[in-house]
Every structure is written in structure tokens, then in C-alpha cells.
Amino acid sequence: MTRILAGNSNCYHGYTIEQAIQGIAAAGFRYIELTATKGWTEHVSPDMPFARLLQIQDQLRAAGLTPFAMSGHCNLMDTARIGDFVQNIRLAAFFGCRYIVTSIGEAHLADQAVATHAQVAGHIRALLPELEAHSLTLVLETHGHEHGTGKVLAEIVRLVNSPRVRINYDTANVIFYGNVDPAEDLAACVQDVGYVHLKDKGGERTVWDFPALGQGWVDFPRIFEVLRAAGNESPLSVEIEFTQAGARDVHEVDEAMRASAAYLVSQGFAL
Q: Contact 221/236 with Cβ under 8 angstroms?
């Protein structure tokens, strides 16, 4: 199997899907992770007119980009948002995606401070019929203070106990939220990882600073070695989030995407 390397359209937060398609394709990627995160980056959305979704499909095809994954973040512990997430599952299937990405959200229930892992797993397990119906794998992102490490998510994934649910390992989130060494944490959960967000970390640990790959201090060679040693061929999706000020302009995003692609090639990957 040839490992999928992709550009994440969320790198173009604040810019259009057309700009994301153009920049990701120009950097040499052949795969794209589309973003459908309500209230944040809505490059695609279930609320879009059908004609607009078809137009985006045509633009992706013309650019030579395959939409293999969709970032459809919803709080899975908020029952009022489950309908939104099911719509994102169906939207991902419409685009021919194989993966749908989300974080779990804050696991607070009305009658207790924090839900147990078994309760979280129960919420996720309820989505299995939709995932099966649309041949999708749900990958849970390391995100937030409650679920910010692979070790924690592995416990939940194992309770769900389905090949349709795996971990999306975000290499910078585990530093920012979980305060762990990414390579060590990844090694502890690598058998449960089905997807990876490659994200670098700049600046102090708790500062929002996520530059182009190779421009921060994440030890990616160690991370790649952990994956290789485990025979884990999970897709790698590049995510660049800059600082809280955001990118200077779309040209800075394009350059960061090109630099990230060049870094991956320097590490022996083929786009």
C-alpha cells in the first residue's frame, strides 16, 4: 500500500475552498482533507446548495485532487450536535471520502463533571450504523485537555471495539494540550492509530504556534520511525495553523504548504 499524503484545507482557514484547492495542488499534493467544521472553516457544508457541491467536486477533479477525508468536527458528547455530525458523515460519503475526522469534545454531562470513558465510547458506538452504511472510518483527534493524548484516546477506541473507529494522531496537539512527547505517546497507541495530522509546533509549549513542517521543533523523523517500525501506513495530512494572528495573506499559506511538501520529500516520502 502506498501511503496517502494530503494537504488539509483547514490550512486555508479564512480563505476560500478555491484558494485551498489551488494552493494544495500547486504544492504537489494529490489528496486533500476537506474541512466542514461548522462555525470555523466551512469549505464544504451540508447547508450548501447541491449545485455548489457539484461545482466543488468539479474543481477538485480539475486540480487532480482526491478528497479522501473530511474534517467534520462536532462535540460528540452533545446530543444536540449529533444530527450535524451525521450530516457531515453523509457529506463525506458524497465526496467519496474514506475517513471522517472529529474530536470528541468536552465530555461534561449534566449530572457529573466528566463522563467516563465507557460513556464516551457509548456515544461513539451509536454512530457505527451510519459509518457502516457509508463505508467510512471515524478517526478521533487528539484534542483538548481531556482527550489530548493518544494514550487516553486508545482507551476509548478499545472500548468502542470497532474497525470503523481509530485515532487521528495530531503531532502538535499532544504537545499543546497533552504535554507529552509525541513519539513516546504515539508508540504507546500506534496500533490504534488510523490517521495522522502532521503539525509542527513553534514557540513555547502553550503558545498557539503551528508553522510549516520542519520550521518548528517537533521531531518528525522519530515519529516516522515509530510508524514504520509498527508497519502503520496511516494517511498523513499536513495541517498548518500559524499563530493566533493567522497567516499574513494567502501567499504565506501557499508558501507554507510548498515548504511542508518539500520537507516530506526530504524525509523520503513521495507525494
A: no
d(CA 44, CA 228): 33
CB atoms within 10 A of CB 197: 25
Cβ-contact 147, 121 below 8 angstroms: no
For helices 17-26 and 50-63, angle between their N-to-C axes, nearest 10 degrees: 10
Mind listing the pLDDT tens digit for each residue in 124-178? 999 999 999 999 999 999 998 889 999 999 999 999 999 999 999 999 999 999 9
Q: Cα angle at 70 between 159 and 83, to 5 degrees?
A: 65
Q: Are 22 and 11 in contact (CB under 8 A)?
A: no
User: What's the pLDDT tens digit per position in 179-227?
Assistant: 999 999 999 999 999 999 999 999 999 999 999 999 999 999 999 999 9
Angle of CA points 185, 124, 145, to nearest 5°: 40
Cβ pair 260, 171 in contact under 8 A: no
- The C-alpha atoms of residue 194 and residue 155 are separated, in whole angstroms, by 15
Give dist(CA 77, CA 84) in Å, integer. Answer: 12
What does pTM read for this prediction? 0.95
Q: Cβ contacts of residue 151 below 8 Å, gap of 6+?
A: 180, 185, 188, 189
In CATH, the number for domain 5-266 is 3.20.20.150
pLDDT for 70 beyond 90: yes
HSE at residue 268, side-chain half, CA atoms within 13 A, is: 5
C-beta contacts of 78-85 below 8 A and 24+ residues apart: 78/105, 81/105, 82/126, 82/127, 84/38, 84/46, 85/127
Q: Which residue has the cell 485551498?
A: 20
